[in-house]
Design goal:
The protein is an alpha/beta fold and 461 residues long. It is 43% helix and 20% strand. It has two domains: 257 residues, Aldehyde Dehydrogenase, Chain A, domain 1 (3-Layer(aba) Sandwich); 189 residues, Aldehyde Dehydrogenase, Chain A, domain 2 (3-Layer(aba) Sandwich). Helix 13 links the parallel strand 12 and strand 13. The protein is globular and about 70 Å long. The protein starts with a strand and ends with a strand. Belongs to the aldehyde dehydrogenase family. Keywords: NADP, Oxidoreductase. InterPro entries: Ald_DH/histidinol_DH (IPR016161), Ald_DH_C (IPR016163), Ald_DH_CS_CYS (IPR016160), Ald_DH_N (IPR016162), Aldehyde_DH_dom (IPR015590), ALDH_GabD1-like (IPR044148), GABD/Sad-like (IPR047110). This is NADP-dependent succinic semialdehyde dehydrogenase.
C-alpha cells in the first residue's frame, strides 16, 4: 500500500510520500536508543511540563489537525475536533497523575520481615524504545493513548502509522518536538508494513503495541514472542448491544444509532450486534431503524453530516460483500444496503435482521455503518448470542434490573461492560479485550505500567 493521503470523499490522491530507506531507519533507531539513555533520567515534573505544553499546542491546532484527519480518513470534522480535544485531555490526565501511578511501593511490613529484609521497594522503571503500530480510524487518539503514558513513564516512541494517514503521523512527531521533547523521544517512521518485522527484531526496540487487524496482531505477536519482547494488542471487535424489557427504549435506540455509526461505523468498540429481548424487539427495531434512516450521509467537512465516507475503496468493497452475503443467505434489509452513485467511498447506514450463524457478518467484524439485529427469548439466550463471537473487546447492556446487570457483568466475555450507555474509552479506565480482540490494557494505571520494568529492590538487614 502506498504511503499517501487519498481523500475518501472524492477518491483523489492529494499527496504521496517516499518510504524511509534503511539508512534513515537506522539513524532513527540510533537516535531513539541514545535519547532514551538520558530521557529515562528526567523527573516526572520535567516530563509533565513537556506533555502539558503538547496538550496546549494541540488545543491551539484543533481546527487544522481535525481537518487534516477528515481529509485523510473521512470522519465528520465535528468528530475529528472532538478526537483532538480528547487527546489533549488524556495528555493532561497523565501529566497530572503519572508520578502517583508509578510511585515506589513498599509491601506490607510483615511480608518484608518474613523475607529477611530490612526494606523492600517496588519500582517502575522504563523499558526503552517502544514500537507503536497504529491504525487509521482514530489516527490521533490511538497514538496519544500510547504516547502519553509511554513518555511519562520515561520510554521513547517509534510510530509506524497506517499508510493512509501520513500527514497525521508527521503532525504528531512535530507536535512533540514543538512541545520541547528532544527529537529522539517520539519519531514517526514512514514505512510500509513489510518493514515492521525487521524493526521489531532489532535489539534496540524493547517492546511493541499494536492496534489493528487480527492478521497484523498475529504477525507482531509472533515476532515479539520469538524475540521475547512485551506486546500489547488491541484488535477487532464485534461488540454486542443487549436490550432487555426494563430498558428505556427511546434512549436505548437513540444511543444505539450513535454507537453504531460513530466514526462512520469504523470503530473496534462500535456496537455491531444488537441483541434484543423478544418482548421489546419490534418496538426497538422500529425506533432504531427510523434513527438510522434519518442520518445525513455526505461531505465530512460539512457540520450537519452524520456519516462520511469509508476510509478506503477496499474497505467499502469488503463491507458490501459482507452485506450481500447475508442478504443472499436470507437476511432482511430494514434500511440501506445499496452503494450510492457518485464519487467517494460512501455506504449508507444499514440495518439487517434474520441473521444466522453461517453468515459472514455474524462471524466477522463489519467495519462500517451496518448493524445486525438478533431476537433473544430471555437473558440466557441474550448472553449466548453475545458471546457467540471470536471477539471480546467491549459490550453494552440496557436494563434497569440490578440482578441482570450483575449477570451480564459476570458472564459477558469482554474487556468492558457498559450499562445504559455506549462504550467509550477514557484515560482513567483500563481499555482492552479478551479472546481474539487482543491482550494487555491501555489507559489508566494499568496502561502506563504495561511498558515498565517492575523492579523489586530488596535490602538485607
Amino acid at each position: 500500500m502506498p504511503i499517501a493521503t487519498v481523500n475518501p470523499a472524492t477518491g483523489e490522491t492529494l499527496k504521496t510520500y517516499e518510504a524511509m530507506g534503511e539508512e534513515e531507519i537506522e539513524r532513527r533507531l540510533q537516535l531513539a536508543e541514545a535519547t532514551f539513555r538520558t530521557y529515562r533520567t528526567t523527573s516526572f515534573d520535567e516530563r509533565s511540563a513537556l506533555l502539558r505544553r503538547a496538550a496546549d499546542l494541540l488545543d491551539e491546532d484543533n481546527e487544522s489537525i481535525a481537518r487534516a484527519m477528515t481529509t485523510e480518513m473521512g470522519k465528520p470534522v465535528k468528530q475529528a475536533r472532538a478526537e483532538a480535544a480528547k487527546c489533549a485531555k488524556a495528555m493532561r490526565w497523565y501529566a497530572d497523575r503519572a508520578a502517583g501511578l508509578l510511585a515506589d511501593e513498599e509491601p506490607d511490613a510483615s511480608d518484608v520481615r518474613d523475607s529477611g529484609a530490612s526494606r523492600v521497594v517496588v519500582r517502575y522503571r522504563p523499558l526503552g524504545p517502544v514500537l507503536a503500530v497504529m491504525p487509521w480510524n482514530f489516527p490521533l487518539w490511538q497514538v496519544v493513548r500510547f504516547a502519553a503514558p509511554a513518555l511519562m513513564a520515561g520510554n521513547v516512541g517509534l510510530l509506524k502509522h497506517a499508510s493512509n494517514v501520513p500527514q497525521t503521523a508527521l503532525y504528531l512527531e512535530d507536535l512533540f518536538h514543538r512541545a520541547g521533547f528532544t527529537e529522539g523521544c517520539f519519531q514517526a517512521l514512514l514505512i510500509g508494513s513489510g518493514a515492521v518485522d525487521e524493526i521489531l527484531r532489532d535489539d534496540r526496540v524493547k517492546a511493541a503495541t499494536l492496534t489493528g487487524s487480527e492478521p497484523a496482531g498475529r504477525a507482531v505477536a509472533s515476532t515479539a514472542g520469538e524475540m521475547i519482547k512485551k506486546t500489547v494488542l488491541e484488535l477487532g471487535g464485534s461488540d454486542p448491544y443487549v436490550v432487555m424489557p426494563s430498558a428505556d427504549l427511546d434512549r436505548a435506540a437513540q444511543v444505539a444509532v450513535t454507537a453504531r455509526v460513530q466514526n462512520n461505523g469504523q470503530s473496534c468498540i462500535a456496537a455491531k450486534r444488537f441483541i434484543v429481548h423478544t418482548d421489546v424487539y419490534d418496538a426497538f427495531a422500529e425506533r432504531f431503524t427510523t434513527g438510522m434512516k434519518a442520518l445525513k450521509v455526505g461531505d465530512p467537512m460539512e457540520e450537519e453530516t452524520d456519516v462520511g465516507p469509508l476510509a478506503s475503496e477496499q474497505g467499502r468493497s469488503d463491507l458490501e460483500e459482507m452485506v450481500d452475503d447475508a442478504v443472499h443467505a436470507g437476511a432482511e434489509v430494514l434500511c440501506g444496503g445499496e452503494r450510492p452513485e457518485g464519487p467517494g467511498w460512501y455506504y449508507p447506514p444499514t440495518v439487517l435482521s434474520g441473521i444466522d450463524r453461517e453468515m459472514r457478518i455474524h462471524r466477522e467484524e463489519a467495519f462500517g455503518p451496518v448493524a445486525t439485529l438478533y431476537r433473544a427469548a430471555d437473558l440466557d439466550e441474550a448472553v449466548l448470542i453475545a458471546n457467540d463471537t471470536s471477539f471480546g473487546l467491549s459490550s453494552n447492556v440496557w436494563t434497569r434490573d440490578e440482578a441482570e446487570v450483575d449477570r451480564f457483568a459476570r458472564d459477558l466475555e469482554a474487556g468492558g461492560v457498559y450499562v445504559n450507555g455506549m462504550t467509550a474509552s477514557h484515560p482513567a479506565f483500563p481499555f482492552g479485550g479478551v479472546k481474539r480482540s487482543g491482550y494487555g490494557r491501555e489507559l489508566s494505571g494499568h496502561g502506563i505500567r504495561e511498558f515498565c520494568n517492575i523492579t523489586t529492590v530488596w535490602q538485607g538487614a
